[in-house]
Specification:
The protein has 371 residues and is of the alpha/beta class. The protein has two domains: 13-133 and 325-341, NAD(P)-binding Rossmann-like Domain (Rossmann fold); 136-322 and 349-367, Dihydrodipicolinate Reductase, domain 2, CATH 3.30.360. 30% of the residues lie in helices and 22% in strands. The chain is built from ten helices and 17 strands. It has helices at 24-32, 47-56, 68-71, 89-98, 113-126, 140-150, 175-178, 187-202, 322-334, 343-362; strands at residues 13-18, 37-43, 63-65, 79-82, 102-105, 130-132, 157-165, 213-221, 230-232, 237-239, 250-257, 262-268, 279-283, 286-289, 292-295, 305-306, 366-367. It has a nine-stranded mixed sheet, with helices on one face. A six-stranded parallel sheet has the order 3-2-1-4-5-6, with helices on both faces. Strands 9-10 form a two-stranded antiparallel ribbon. Strand 2, helix 2 (47-56) and strand 3 (63-65) form a beta-alpha-beta unit. The radius of gyration is 21 Å and the shape is globular. 48% of the residues are buried.
Length: 371
């Protein structure tokens, strides 16, 4: 059943953008592109950064705050986009849920299992809708490949590989928070969780289903932890005396899923190369290497079939399909249904991330779930 319209004068859902960093620009643009939403407020650690973001987006009649609790009192806020650094997500989500606001949560959800439990309880008690920004689920090639898996083009998948390769550094505005062991936690959490979520997405046959992890074993290494030399992949140059990353930049995990599919996922933040997001899916009737397909679906095939599409081949947030994600979430709110990428589902992706961290620490496989 369709829900009531939003609280703005135009009958649109009013949106609060909390956090005025790089990614918030794409949240704002997506809401501006949806006819059922209007950004009514921006809050940030400084009112000046909120004002700058509003001016860049040419927003008019938008309220500016530097305190989330005050911003949540705005009479026309129905939805909050949480775009703050990851170590703030839990407290932000708890406040939004207590205020009865629907929530878009940037990845990762939080920095520990305790935070996941707290968010789950708060959202469950409040009954609000959520979506987590594993935005690549709306990437055109992700959608095409997911449909191919669902329709049996590869037969039954039995093994999936996904990788996140990006030399994250000070070119990213969130790096100073993310590089630390206390707030960044791990390479999988900071960035590789996109690849972990993709692994779950392609390991399940359902068109809107992600596979359930039951065990993870991981190792970590690389050369960059504590290293003060940083690579700039945009200018192909090295920066000396840079603040170091405080955790290993390379993590590799093997994952077992409840449906019998096996997966391998890695994050490589040590790599000297442009951003890449390799995808490989193996089924009993075909295989996929990125956007190249070998399948029983193409009788007489003598070479890989390459499918032109938009691949996840850039770390730039303007390349990511936020419009499709936000459009999807607004329909979920209107129809009073859960997103396939809601907080509860995203917790399962984070279980792999934190399980991998525990496995690296102990040297043993970790059974899931743990919360």
């Amino acid at each position: 059943m369709e829900q009531t319209v939003g609280t703005t004068e135009e009958g649109r859902y009013g949106v609060l953008i909390h956090g005025a960093g790089w990614v918030s620009s794409q949240h704002i643009a997506a809401y501006q592109g949806n006819p059922r939403t209007r950004v009514v407020a921006i809050s940030s650690r400084s009112k000046e950064s909120a004002r700058k973001r509003a001016e860049e987006a040419e927003l008019e009649s938008v309220s500016l705050y530097q305190d989330l609790d005050e911003a949540l009192k705005h009479p026309n806020v129905d939805i909050v986009s949480v775009c703050t650094p990851q170590h703030l997500h839990c407290s932000n989500v708890l406040a939004c849920a207590a205020a009865g606001k629907h929530i878009v949560i940037e990845k990762p959800l939080g920095i520990g299992l305790k935070e996941l439990r707290q968010m789950r309880a708060a959202v469950s008690d409040s009954g609000v809708r959520t979506v987590v920004s594993f935005v690549l689920r709306w990437n055109p090639w992700f959608q095409t490949l997911k449909r191919m898996i669902h329709e049996g083009v590869l037969g039954q998948a039995y093994y999936v590989e996904t990788d996140y390769c990006s030399h994250n550094g000070s070119w990213w505005s969130g790096w100073e928070d993310a590089r630390t062991a206390a707030q960044g936690i791990s390479a999988f959490l900071v960035a590789g969780c996109h690849a972990v979520d993709a692994l779950r997405w392609f390991a399940a046959a359902g068109e809107l289903e992600a596979a359930e992890p039951i065990e993870v074993y991981a190792v970590s290494g690389g050369y960059r932890k504590g290293n003060t030399t940083q690579y700039d992949p945009f200018h192909h140059e090295w920066i000396e005396n840079a603040p170091p990353m405080e955790y290993n930049g390379l993590e590799v995990a093997l994952v077992k899923f409840s449906n019998g599919v096996l997966g391998k996922v890695s994050v490589n933040m040590d790599c000297i190369m442009p951003y890449r997001f390799p995808i490989r899916v193996f089924g009993n009737r075909g295989s996929v290497m990125d956007n190249r397909v070998w399948s029983h679906h193409y009788p007489g095939q003598t070479d890989w079939v390459e499918i032109p599409s938009i691949l996840p081949d850039s770390s730039d947030v303007t390349h990511h399909p936020f419009q499709a994600q936000i459009d999807h979430f607004i329909e979920c709110i209107r129809e009073d249904r859960e997103s396939h990428c809601n907080l509860e589902d995203a917790i399962k992706t984070h279980e792999i991330v934190f399980g991998a961290l525990e496995s690296c620490r102990t040297g043993a496989p970790v059974k899931l779930p743990r919360i």
